[in-house]
Write the structure tokens for this entry.
Amino acid sequence: MLRTNAVAAWPADAPALEVLVAVAGTPVALADDEAWLLQDGQWRRASWYPPAGTVVAGGFGSSDGMTFLLLAPRAAPGQIDRALRLTLQGGVLASQALPGLPVALSQAEGAARGGALQLAGMDEAGEPRLLTLAAGGNNWRVRDGWPGGGAPRAMVATATSSYLAAAHADDGGADRLLRWSPDAGWEALGDAPGRILPGAGRAIGQAHLLFVVDDGGASAVMSYHAITGAWAAPPGGRVGDVRAATAWKNGLLWSETAAGTTRLAVSEIESGRLLLRWLDWIVMAFYLAAMVGIGVFFYARDRHASTADFFVGGRSIPFWVAGVSLYATNVSSISFIAIPAKAFESNWQYLTNNLIAVFGLMFVAVWIVPLLRRLDLMSVFTYLETRFHPAIRMIASALCILVQIGSRMSVILFLPSLAIATITGIDVVWSVLIMGGFTILYTTLGGMKAVVWTDFVQVFVMFGGALFAIGFILLHIDGGVPEFMATAMAEDKMKLLDFSFDLTQATVWGFLFLVLFDVVLTFPKDQVLMQRVLSTKSGRDAGRSVWMFAAMMIPGGCLFYGIGTALYVYYKSHPERMDPLLPIDATFPLFIAAELPMGVTGLIVAGIFAAAMSTLSSIINSVSTLASVDFYERLAKHPTQKASVRFAEIAGVLVGLVGIGLALLLSRLDIHSLFDVSIELFGLLGGGFAGAYTLGMFTRRANAPGVAIGIASAILLTLAAWSVDLVHSYFYLAISILVCIVVGYLASLFFPPPAQSLAGLTVHDP
């Protein structure tokens, strides 16, 4: 909803207010060559004036805090020929001239993002023109005007596009809205609900625009959703006869003149907090108690467990349970929240990754998994010691522990906590403590058996909540399933395959590349996934568990992408139900909290917890296994199975506590940059060892010195690429693996072939 509050009255002795802008969060009014600042609750005249011989013809700001004024010659006040940037330093206004416009524009409107500017206006011949100036650029670029002509009303820039409200060429009826981007050019978006006040527009949140619209009566602040293309009139949006407006705080600052008096007010969007109800808490408490109960059951049954029982479930886990656990571990809470948001925002193209990954998992099931399962490993890094050297094993294990705790566990704990806190009112700290604390408890009590069986239950909690959600959405879409399908197909929301060679898009070729490096070549070194495979009864069952995992990927992906598409159709019909201040990733949690009945909300929030806890328990169990098997049992003087299990239990608690601490630290920092760092760490530190597995399993010639050189070269060259920002962070993993394979194999040729028997260690020597 919108809440309108009065702002300090315009001084009675001041000239008539003409232009409103906000500079560094401070409202600035331009009136008859004078500038006025709103400071300490009142308007004060500033010691700034436009350059000699010019008048201020308009102004606009950007979402990143920059403010610009448009100037025209005093002799021709309707012909804008220059612009300047306005700044506020120590309460004093200052300006910086920008390059002169190559074409004088009338009725010009502007927008800015990241220092780049766009100006739309009419040239001397009455033709529409768009001028763009790159950030830090010295020359304006003249681009094609918008189709259909018509004078500009307002212009707004978002992260990817600019939006222009323009009058119809015949100046009749409602204005129309167009979108422009450097790559796609102009695109017509249909008519607005009325006439838009010149200069009265802004972007807010990640996907909303606000405009002051005259719909034939009084003016109203209305929102436009850039994804669904739907207009909405928020409650409380009616305003007076607005004459000027600008972006300020979480809304628009506007002025109106009545009976000779100028009134100013700000209309701001307010988010409602949607709290869980008593039945939701009962459902969540029952779920958490059930998870702990599973851990207590296996602890009581196997309290004198051996290392094999604790680390790999006594190698007695049924393949179908291991397969479901693999899926649960792979589908983290980030996926539970982010996949519906991705489908809501775009389409199903990212589901191509699941389709191709199925073929990658087939290769893994046939060639890689049986080889490693036959070796009866507990730590997957034992293979590197057997094939190459103990030092390679320990370094790889240590880096794996670092990456799992630092770049996976903390983010997986924090991101869903942030989403849940934003929507339901559960504090981030409590969300992190609840998920982390209960996961530590059942994981350290029950070991691997508790982990895989809780994963099994959690998948049904996730799927149950997701199925209910998509069914509920379809029932509440006007027109039901036929309308859902018609809208989705008409707007290409279920587009899947893209065979273009555009490397900037989600194409089939890009996913083939990603699956090769992120699934096939890294699967052997992923202790979290491989530990489930190693827990099965035989090599045959190990392969079948991966087949089970592959069989769940496509229907599971369709379910979560389907939720995103259903949300798109629902909110296209009900745009007023959205919250412009929430990020796109909060779309599904918003629907859960605002639309679902009591009890079901608790079930799906439990599903988000389940998605997070299944991955967290896997990380805690795997890291504690590595700490015990790769370090304690190798470094302790007289290790015993009982002591090794006890050490793993203590390590599991410590790992969980460190993960909780890092997640709480993230709540005070910039999560977006840290999430990128987590991806970079995975590629920078982990890719080389994935290459070592490839060399070990698929070649006979690779040896320890050559592989060591390959790993070191991979890490150093990938760090060098990172230091100069050579490529996107997603490519670091592929670069690291490729360098390790190529350099490692070539370096191995300079050393004698392996002297030990390779029986059972390569695909060539089963």
The longest strand covers residues 195-204. The mean pLDDT is 86. The two ends are 67 Å apart (CA to CA).
